[in-house]
Amino acid sequence: MAVDNPRTATLLMHCPDRPGVVAAVTRFLAGHGANIVDLDQHVDRAEGVFFMRVRWELEGFALDAEAFSEAFRTTIAEHFQAIWQLHHNARPLRMALFVSKMSHCLYDLLSRWQSGEWHVEVPLIISNHETLRPVAEQFGIPFHCFPITADNRAEQEAAERELLERHAVDLAVLARYMQIVGPTLIDAFPQRIINIHHSFLPAFAGAKPYHAAHARGVKIIGATSHYVTADLDAGPIIEQDVTRITHRDSVEALVRKGQDLEKLVLARGIWAHLQRQTLVYQNRTIVFS
Amino acid sequence: MAVDNPRTATLLMHCPDRPGVVAAVTRFLAGHGANIVDLDQHVDRAEGVFFMRVRWELEGFALDAEAFSEAFRTTIAEHFQAIWQLHHNARPLRMALFVSKMSHCLYDLLSRWQSGEWHVEVPLIISNHETLRPVAEQFGIPFHCFPITADNRAEQEAAERELLERHAVDLAVLARYMQIVGPTLIDAFPQRIINIHHSFLPAFAGAKPYHAAHARGVKIIGATSHYVTADLDAGPIIEQDVTRITHRDSVEALVRKGQDLEKLVLARGIWAHLQRQTLVYQNRTIVFS
Amino acid sequence: MAVDNPRTATLLMHCPDRPGVVAAVTRFLAGHGANIVDLDQHVDRAEGVFFMRVRWELEGFALDAEAFSEAFRTTIAEHFQAIWQLHHNARPLRMALFVSKMSHCLYDLLSRWQSGEWHVEVPLIISNHETLRPVAEQFGIPFHCFPITADNRAEQEAAERELLERHAVDLAVLARYMQIVGPTLIDAFPQRIINIHHSFLPAFAGAKPYHAAHARGVKIIGATSHYVTADLDAGPIIEQDVTRITHRDSVEALVRKGQDLEKLVLARGIWAHLQRQTLVYQNRTIVFS
Amino acid sequence: MAVDNPRTATLLMHCPDRPGVVAAVTRFLAGHGANIVDLDQHVDRAEGVFFMRVRWELEGFALDAEAFSEAFRTTIAEHFQAIWQLHHNARPLRMALFVSKMSHCLYDLLSRWQSGEWHVEVPLIISNHETLRPVAEQFGIPFHCFPITADNRAEQEAAERELLERHAVDLAVLARYMQIVGPTLIDAFPQRIINIHHSFLPAFAGAKPYHAAHARGVKIIGATSHYVTADLDAGPIIEQDVTRITHRDSVEALVRKGQDLEKLVLARGIWAHLQRQTLVYQNRTIVFS
């Protein structure tokens, strides 16, 4: 499941469902010398769409990225009307972190990066507050503060976007970034911004979900990691998890228990993205195994 | 936790929080010869309210129900402005079941009754359809069919209410009863009607929650048992649980997986009520341990 | 995931891992007109073994069972040294139930059968005690009692085996059958006897697992459904699940909470078998999705 | 549940079960001006032992630690033969961390300390390897390396013990410390050493539990935090949790998924200890709510 060997490539594709897709793709790959490591496919019968993820070893594979693109297009993609992405896994993804004042997700993500648990680079941290600059410095990551107001959002996001592009960022992670992200950023990074929301969406979307959960008297709280879209807290869900609470838990206790969930659910969502296991279709996320 | 010995009594109470309540109540009980079996208390600091459940053995206890009522009122309740209920656990509760066409919860509840797992009586089953009459007959429980339309609801519910009262029903369980319950019944059985809703409330309240969950692309589905109030699917929650799903699960698969959850969450909610572990305050349910 | 359409066939196979298996199998199926509904494959890299499950629609498929067997053998199986099974899903499996005195799993399984939730037949119930005969009769299933002692086991099991074979039983389910099953039965039904063990195996194998769990002070209890082999409680695991407990839970409370787990874990294990999702390799169970 | 207000004291006690204990203790506290914040009691009927945890506000409480000790002893403890501990919550506990080469738990614990999530001090880190010295330095915590061999264990542990005592350490945490701890340390810190074991104990005690879990083909893996006793991996369990795995997960995947569990289960175990919610009796841990 993990990228045990970075000398692999991953293909993600979907197309109208019809007989013979798996046979055609696997024959194509085998024909160019691919040793397939993972293959997972899914048919959404209600939509009539076929989805597939294949990962294979690059050693012995005859095609470089350009040659693959040309050959796959003419042999498979045009025939099956497939939409596809090819990823070479040797290059670590470059992940930018957005934070505000809460540190728990930031510490968790930086620990996974620094310890080498994740095959990523973290070129920069962006915040709308100075609060967490010392944590960034302790881990040796450049920290950029862009205070946001209703008046300056578009301008500040344009500057953030320029910074992200200059650092060749692949993925932006909102690690409890308590600020609405506008179209300037969202349009520039489609399905490449992951947010953690501190509730079991769609329950308790919006602000103060722990207060709302406490007021409603639920017996379980949750967290949700999802791709960010223009609709607040309504983007395609990657991962969710929950934890049990009781009437004894005050709002403060929910916040404390929820933080552990947020760390875990955000990390799992990012991991699925890093592994190229995710494919978004009609606001839902296929998470291949 | 279970009523291992039915020769016990349970006191549920709440009052404004102030020092000395536990001391006063336990001294009162000890003074009349009670051997306390369970004691659980909770203080809601935000509301300033004290909650307690105490269960004690009746053997050696000096007061019968009437004497307890008089003594407790003058010694404790008036002083602390307590609201309280006393339950003798020897008598099995009388539980009526409301069903429509789906049988999974009905089978589960009847099995728990017939096997003696639960210390209850099931005097009757009420339905708005004939579909499940054979199941009722197989288990030897009288089955009453009241078809409901927009026009006849009040009238039919009045007849149901009369039937429930005639059978001295303590608790009505809506075991996937696909029909809105109106004020005629709700007002007659406050905090004595338990419903199972097939979602993780407050997400996906109302009709067709599995369809809505599938459309939203959630990664976890849930079920909720709650007391029925005038606000649809908004009554005090007793118990919730969840199960993990993936993009592979069609709506039909969610229905199938959800049914197992519904059985479990409804049974746990009823069990807590039977054990007199529940106390409702401001639309939230304290579930004592 | 469910057999939404029984007009399908399922192929389960494994073989030494080498390039081209998926391509060969899917090309073979497509070439005979199969529309593939599900395909899941897995490579065990440590063992160097390839596993696959494919399900396709029989409508339009050119081969009957015999023709498939011949064509698949010569085209695929010999070349890849594959071990394989083909199942036509139209025929309901015939499932025998073994019980002793506890009824919770029996009620649950009979309810799933009678309600039509499962596409199975239940030709008979076997027990070593008379206790549950009334439940069998209530559901209209023949009940056979074979009291077992150390002296008569082989003889009684031979009679049971004869009965199972006479009723063309496909699957035997030990639904809290509190009796060791010997080689007479195990050898006759390899990977076709499913047991529920009331612990999280391999913890607390053997007798009285709830007592052992209580004594050890664990904070979580579990249940395990597995195929029965000659090694007691050591066969290939199909499904496990757990539930949280606390120091408040007596052994009796563990038994009560555990029973709900047992019902669920046994039902899920059987479901996976009925769906032909399971494949045993070296005492581990692949459960395809 | 959390120590929202450190100006509180916590009493943990147990005694032979007999009527009137709660009444006596709460009357005693109320009589000296205590406002009780939490009270949780438990009766182990099989053992005939009563357990209680009470927490109250120190503001307005008439007794200092010494006066409490004298008054409680004569008024309550002697009469009821109670074993008890009193903790003032204003003082942060001093927690030493033991590590080897794996960093995930270390990062997690240091993050909780540095962010102020936990009301603790971390005076030192002890390791049998140099590997994690840079992490300790990054967080500004003194790091002491004591390589252990079969020959020098007693001597090295004596030095470690001296160091812990010199730093007035209250609690030692084995954060994936891959080294057996001997009697020199265990005897000096009874019920004050917490270990994380990377399995669902008692399954897979000892070395390489993920390899053993993979070989057995379990469908769920777990982690266990427990107090360390002379019996390896057999001390009183504080907290356990599990995560679901499939046949797709290699040993490496189990290790990766397990690490997130280990972090969480160790943190929860420590939190319960810090909150003075734990009381050990006969190798089992009461965890009060």
UniProtKB/TrEMBL annotation, chains A, B, C, D:
UniProt-annotated catalytic positions: D233
Enzyme Commission identifier(s): 3.5.1.10
Any single GO BP term: 'de novo' IMP biosynthetic process
UniProt xrefs under Gene3D superfamilies: 3.30.70.260, Formyl transferase, N-terminal domain
Ranges of residues in domain ACT: 10-91
Cited SUPFAM superfamilies: ACT-like, Formyltransferase
MF-aspect GO terms: formyltetrahydrofolate deformylase activity
Claim: Transcription regulation is one of the keywords in the record: no
Functional pathway: Purine metabolism; IMP biosynthesis via de novo pathway; formate from 10-formyl-5,6,7,8-tetrahydrofolate: step 1/1
InterPro entries recorded: ACT-like_dom_sf (IPR045865), ACT_dom (IPR002912), Formyl-FH4-Hydrolase_C (IPR041729), Formyl_transf_N (IPR002376), Formyl_transf_N_sf (IPR036477), PurU (IPR004810), PurU_ACT (IPR044074)
Catalysed reactions, as listed in the record: (6R)-10-formyltetrahydrofolate + H2O = (6S)-5,6,7,8-tetrahydrofolate + formate + H(+)
Hydrolase among keywords: yes
Keywords: Hydrolase, One-carbon metabolism, Purine biosynthesis
UniProt-listed NCBIfam families: PRK06027.1, PurU
Record function comment: Catalyzes the hydrolysis of 10-formyltetrahydrofolate (formyl-FH4) to formate and tetrahydrofolate (FH4).
UniProt record similarity statement: Belongs to the PurU family.
PANTHER family (alphabetical): FORMYLTETRAHYDROFOLATE DEFORMYLASE (PTHR42706), FORMYLTETRAHYDROFOLATE DEFORMYLASE 2, MITOCHONDRIAL (PTHR42706:SF1)
Name of protein: Formyltetrahydrofolate deformylase
Organism: Spiribacter vilamensis
Lineage: Bacteria, Pseudomonadati, Pseudomonadota, Gammaproteobacteria, Chromatiales
Gene transcribed to yield this protein: purU
